[in-house]
Amino acid sequence: MSANTLKLRPNEKVIFDKLSDELKDGWQIADETLEAEETIEELKMRHDMFRGSETCTKILDAMSGVKDEEALKKAASEMDFSSLAQEDAAELFFTLGTAAISAIIFGALEDADSDDDLEGIASLTEIRHMLFESNSST
Amino acid sequence: MSTATDLPAQAPGEEIFPASRNRNEFSENLGTEMTLEQIAEKLKTQEGKMEVLQMIKDVNPELNGNVEKAGDIVKLNTEQLLMKESFIKKMLKLPGRAMDKTWETVKKHPVLTAVLLVAIAAAGAYYMGYLPQLGTWGLKLKSLFTGAAGSAAAEGAGEVAAEGAAEAVAEGAGAAAEAASEFAVEGIDSLKIVLDENAVRIGEKVMDLETFASEAVKMKEANPDLLFDVLRSADTRVTDEFMFGDIMEKIGMENVRDFDFSGIAENIK
User: Fold this and answer.
1) What would the mean pLDDT of B130-155 be, rounded to a whole number?
2) Nearest residue in A to B86, CA atom
């Protein structure tokens, strides 16, 4: 799929349509027609199967100490994904599942104000699409 | 993973049979040299399944009455391992630039992302009742993972932009209604549940919101699973938060977080 294509669900398209014409210029929309979301049992299993690298575990350990919203905000501001390997990213997204990725896409679309933002969202929609495909693969 | 002692550290089922994280562990846990694919193939037939159950018994004679349950865990584990491999293979083909842009986007929404990561870090917090401690974010995430409020996704993310989402969706009601008609969803049994602009269609029946709300109150008492399914279908597929909020209010639940999910999540298939 082209790098300037966003694979969106209907509710996401509504948000995209609200963006300025200038921002939308050059971006293509494709319908995300797959919908093989995970069940709660599958998410539980994915959690049990999770195997992150040391870097990944470090990030998650920082999160495990979070006990309230204040601590959550603090931990969030200190997150650093730049050192994560692509395989770690795959582990994380697989474990989170498609609904969580959709949540990020939705929020990111609402705040999008640059081509860089849309490029990131396009990648996220591609990742979600790949996960939908894998979810339907067995 | 989590090291905090006050967080749930183990998923249900783990004590019955361990979840394998890769092919090596899988072979070790099952005491077999058969591949994942071969086991997956066996699990498709009753005869093959019995063979796998025997393998489980041989390697874990102490399982006794839990062999069937262990078999279910192995089946799910096998499927998820294959899915994971397929996904990782695809992800590794993603250009580095795309990954960089992804992280930049994710980092622009740190709180939402952090909450999602807590779900992993806190060892299955989302189904162990820990998340409410994180306040509204945790509750929304709980809804998200139980699949109950798609708007946990929309709403959770939407909170970042406050009321923008609801407003945008409300303004785009025409488009949302159109989407609704295209997204007729299979409910339980053969029910088709569709939200239109001002009506709810369940199978052949068309109800206005008032009627639906009144039916939903009865449903809440008599068959919470059905109500759960209706709300889940309506919200995740149509994602018209505006309407969803209206319905919830009429049913007498200020927010989906007031809905008691206990025992219901287990029925999601």
Assistant:
1) 48
2) A134
Assess contact for B8 and A34: CB atoms under 8 A. no
Whether B71 has its CB under 8 Å from any CB of chain A: the answer is no
Q: Is B150 in the A-facing interface, judged by CB distances under 8 Å?
A: yes
A9 vs A6, A14, A85, A103, B188, CA distance in Å? 10, 9, 28, 12, 23
A-facing residues of B in 123-142 (CB < 8 A) are: 123-124, 126-127, 133-137
Residue in chain A lying closest to B115 (CA): A72
Q: At A28, give phi and psi (nearest 5°).
A: -110, 150
| Helices B209-222 and B224-233: angle between axes, nearest 10 degrees | 140
Report the alpha-carbon distance of residue B121 to residue A121 in Å, rounded: 24
Place B113 in a pLDDT band, splitting at 50, 70 and 90.
confident
B194 forms bridges with which residues in the sheet? B201
Q: Which residues of B touch A37 (CB under 8 A)?
A: 147, 236
Q: pTM score, two decimals?
A: 0.66
Please spell the DSSP secondary structure of B87-132, one letter per residue. HHHHHTTS-HHHHHHHHHHHHTSHHHHHHHHHHHHTTSGGGTT-GG
Q: Answer whether B83's CB lies under 8 Å from A135's CB.
A: yes
Give the per-residue pLDDT at B61. 86
Residues 6+ apart with CB under 8 A from B177: B196, B197
The residues in B 193-212 lying below 8 A from A, measured between CB atoms, are: none
What's the pLDDT at B180? 25
From the CA of B173, how many Å to the nearest CA of chain A?
Answer: 9
Among positive and negative, which fits the CA dihedral B176, B161, B157, B133? negative
Spell out which residues of chain B touch residue A110, defining contact as CB-CB under 8 Å.
Answer: 157-158, 160-161, 164-165, 168
- Count CB atoms within 10 A of the CB of residue A83: 11
More confident residue, B21 or A72: B21
- Please report the ipTM that was assigned to this predicted complex: 0.92
Q: Stretch B77-85: mean pLDDT, rounded?
A: 95
Confidence of residue B35 (pLDDT cuts 50, 70, 90): very high
- Distance (Å, whole) CA B210 – CA B241: 17
What is residue B12's predicted lDDT score, i.e. its pLDDT? 42
Map out the domains of chain A as residue ranges.
Answer: 1-38+97-138, 50-95
